[in-house]
Amino acid sequence: MGIYKKKIYDIGVVIQIEKCYPGNFGAPGQTRRKRKKKTPEDIRRQNEKNRWKRLQRIILANFKEGDWHLILKYRSEERPETFGEAKAHLKKFLDRMREAYKKAGIPFKWIIVTERGKRGQVLHHHLVIEDVRRNGIETVKLVKKLWSYGNEFFASLYEDGEYEKLAEYLVKAETKEECGWSTYSRSRNLIVPEPKVEIIHHRRWRNPPVAPKGWYVVKDSIWNGENPVTGQPVQHYTIKRLDKRREENSG
User: Fold this and answer.
1) Which of 124, 128, 134, 202 has the fewest Cβ atoms within 10 angstroms?
2) Residue 166 CB neighbour total at 10 angstroms
3) What are the distances in angstroms from CA 145 to CA 104, 140, 148, 151, 152?
């Protein structure tokens, strides 16, 4: 009888599951490999993957379908010459948004990264924020009022994988030339999900994975690969609760 480790991130709207074999155990029938030394590229890839997986979970735990992926752009005559100048513009905007939300008794939650355009010159800002329409706050109108440097582009957050794709994009879009390999920024009032860890006494996990009754596996979320250092199999996927309409159609 073999064993494997299962990490379960219960994020309310979805559950993310990660499976791997503990370091002292390999997959049944697989020859144990000698651990190879991590290369700088191995470390870079793993760090990037860890960042966007963590950001996925933060987005899912704090924002819902219908909230906003907001892009703040600049008019040509207002474009900042340096990252520091763009950061100052952003701070002014966030301070004014926070003040307006505070007066309305609403917490202001946000995630942000600043990106260079494809030509390497024009800076712009990507944010994830809630769509609030209460206590005198209308997020869209407030953004248009307080971002005075150019245009705003609003895209709704959608279900079934869009959160994950957005998280990966935001991490890869981090501005590295001037601010180094720092992560995205976020407000301190966000929930950061932690996993429940289970040790499963079974030789292998199912592939493809099967969701429990009342849930379904998000197809595009399934990833089967191997640990780049140990060479052992790993599996990641997301499950989501069936709504009544979908459950009836699947029955």
Assistant:
1) 134
2) 22
3) 16, 9, 7, 11, 10
